[in-house]
Amino acid sequence: MSTLRRWWLVAVVGLGLGWGWPLQAADLEAGKALYQQYCSTCHGPEGKGNGPAAAAMQPKPRDHTDGRYMNALSDAHLFKVISQGGAAVGKSPLMPAWQGVLTPQQIRDVMAYLRTLAVPPYRPSP
Ligand code: HEC
After folding, report:
1. CA 48, CA 65: separation in Å to the nearest integer?
2. Is the Cβ atom of 54 under 6 angstroms away from ligand 1?
């Protein structure tokens, strides 16, 4: 193997291990922290839709553990409703818009965490 090709290998493997993996793992952790900070007042600390602010709301904040409902929502839909709010998808305007508060990356982090709450578990369609 030439020196050049060896360097390529080091670079590619290094990028994969150094950036790819921790980013993936950090996404979920970051998403969980963001969810607790911004979403749990309404959606509840475990995502069951029963946060302290939920009592007065009609319709109730969505139960994110309800996989039968949540798993049918596409990533595109989730991104839209989280960034632009409930009204943008014909839902309650009490679901706030988070663009401007959360970056697109943070919204994706929260989505990754949201997907882990579903029962039955979320399986991305192939
Ligand atoms: C002020 C209360 C409140 C906060 C804070 C809030 N939500 Fe909501 N959310 C709602 C309500 C109310 C609904 C139900 C809307 C409906 O069914 O018409 C909802 C619905 C949703 C839905 C389901 C949308 C659909 O198409 O059915 C998702 C996903 C969601 N919220 C994500 C989030 C995320 C992520 C956060 C935090 C970044 C968050 N929400 C913070 C009130 C809130």
Report:
1. 6
2. no
Q: How far apart are CA 50 and CA 30, in angstroms?
A: 22
Answer whether residue 44 is part of any domain. Answer: yes
CATH number, domain of 31, equals: 1.10.760.10
Distance 52 CA to ligand 1 centre (A): 14
On whether the pTM is more than 0.70, the answer is yes
Residue 19 lies in a domain: no
**Residue 63 belongs to a domain:** yes
- Do 122 and 71 touch, CB atoms closer than 8 A? yes
Query: 13 to each of 6, 19, 21, 111, how far by Cα in Å?
Result: 11, 10, 11, 28
Q: How many angstroms is it from 26 CA to the middle of ligand 1?
A: 23
Q: What is the pLDDT of residues 14-65, one digit of tens each?
A: 555 555 554 454 589 999 999 999 999 999 999 999 999 999 999 999 999 9
* Contacts with 40 (C-beta within 8 Å, 6 or more apart), sequence order: 47, 51
